[in-house]
Amino acid sequence: MNPLENVVEAKLARLPVPLAVHLPGGRRLGPGQAALILRLKELGPLKHLASGEIGRVAEDHVKGRLEIEGRPRDVMAAAAELLDTDPRRAGAPPPGPLGWWHGLLRRSRSLARHTPQADARQIEFHYDVCDDFYALWLDERRVYSCAYYREAGMTLAQAQEAKLDHICRKLMLQPGERFLDIGAGWGGLLLWAAEHYGVQATGITLSRDQHAHVNRLIEQRGLQGQVHMQLMDYRELPEAQPFDKISSVGMFEHVGHAQLPAYFDKLWRLLRPGGLLMNHGITAGGTRNHQLGAGIGEFVERYIFPGGELQHVSHVLKVMADSGLEMVDVENLRPHYARTLWAWSDALEQHLPEARRLTDERIVRAYRLYLAGSAMAFERGWLSLHQMLAARPDGQMETGTMRGAQSAFPFNREYIYR
């Protein structure tokens, strides 16, 4: 047995799930009876197993260099223990002058990756895979963001409706208000807000498939004149008539570190004085990393979300404050997203034959690992999910329910749950 195989054998012995590795030529590493089996077509993936680069192992599977046999939950239980380092510690800037240079390079790359044209290509890459593929594992409303399991026994569909209503309640939506949803997806929140709260709703997306889908729903439900879905970059939104309330759900992850100040400056201008903004999205589990280590970030960038950049919630709050937005409420829903992702993963596993008919085998393999791997990352705190509710203060001491509120926010949480 060579030194590389010795390292892998030692790692396999420590795993919480019995894992066997079948090498080319018939040799086997690990226990005789295993719930999880990796069948290597070539020896390259053995190096990635030995070094704990689980993102590279995932890529090996997508490219057909190894086959995986076993339940996604077992795969991820083993993957987490194969790591040699905490994936939140990757990409941190070095100390001293090198740190300044590191920051400059990161900003330059981020600016180049988040022009309007680049963002449109990146959104098309992810969201226009195939509407029917997403429909296999999302709920009927196709809500593609963290659900809110208000009660333990909720189904995914119930928890997604609870999330939509949770956001609307936090925003204190009122009939007739002008409501903007940036990155509106397949229209779940946009239509919920219009049908349940009577707002005049506008949504934007860069996905042609999503744009067409939502406009079909608007026509089917007779919501023309009340709901408008536009194929548009957020930078193109006119500012002449500010909105009363704005939501951004699962959107700012795509904006990019360098563009974040301009993004929140734009939202400030789009929001009327005294209005409320809900910024809901994935945040980094570590304070200094912009992606996960061990090859995980590179895998997600290459196969799932090109251009995605992680920000810690503390940095997001700072940028929002610099833009003139006052943070009035922050809620961490991290374990809710883990449960959401496991529900998506389970649903995809139940529909693998249909998924393979609808799209490429590589895409199916990538999404199986992405959904289960993301569920693991949220469970372990490598990633988090925050709802950040902010106001644009209007400068008027008498606005609101308390002197000095300067916005619609009542500065208590009772209104959300009544």
Strand content: 15-25%
Rough outline: elongated
What's the alpha carbon Rg, rounded to whole Å?
23 Å
- Termini separation: 66 Å
Strand tally is 11
Q: Summary?
A:
With 418 residues, the chain is α/β, with parallel strands linked by helices.
Describe the structure.
This protein has a 7-stranded mixed beta sheet with strand order 7-6-5-8-9-11-10. The mean pLDDT is 91. The chain has helices spanning 3-13, 44-51, 54-62, 72-82, 97-113, 116-127, 131-137, 156-170, 188-197, 208-220, 260-270, 296-303, 313-322, 334-350, 352-358, 361-379, 414-417, and strands at residues 19-22, 28-29, 36-40, 66-69, 178-182, 200-205, 227-231, 243-249, 271-284, 326-332, 383-391. Helix 9 links the parallel strand 5 and strand 6 (200-205). The protein is built from 17 helices and 11 strands. With 418 residues, the chain is an alpha/beta fold.
Features:
418 residues, four-stranded mixed β-sheet, 16% strand
SSE map:
Layout: H1 3-13, E1 19-22, E2 28-29, E3 36-40, H2 44-51, H3 54-62, E4 66-69, H4 72-82, H5 97-113, H6 116-127, H7 131-137, H8 156-170, E5 178-182, H9 188-197, E6 200-205, H10 208-220, E7 227-231, E8 243-249, H11 260-270, E9 271-284, H12 296-303, H13 313-322, E10 326-332, H14 334-350, H15 352-358, H16 361-379, E11 383-391, H17 414-417
Parallel strand pairs: 1-3, 5-6, 5-8, 6-7, 8-9
Antiparallel strand pairs: 1-2, 3-4, 9-11, 10-11
